[in-house]
Amino acid sequence: MKTAFMFFARLMKLWFPYLLVYKLLLSCGTLYLGMLILRLYFYLKIMVV
């Protein structure tokens, strides 16, 4: 049981930075996508009016 826990802890320590980077990239990607959609929306609004 203890060995499994140690292995799990080591695995978590190994994977944590990757998870953090993935989360950061995901949030940045969503933000970028939102800005892109907003910019497109304003551009279309200006084109129509």
UniProtKB/TrEMBL annotation:
Top-level taxon of the source organism: Eukaryota
Organism: Helianthus annuus
Protein's recorded name: Uncharacterized protein
Keyword Transmembrane set for record: yes
Segments traversing the membrane: 20-44
Keywords per UniProt: Membrane, Transmembrane, Transmembrane helix
Keyword set includes Membrane: yes
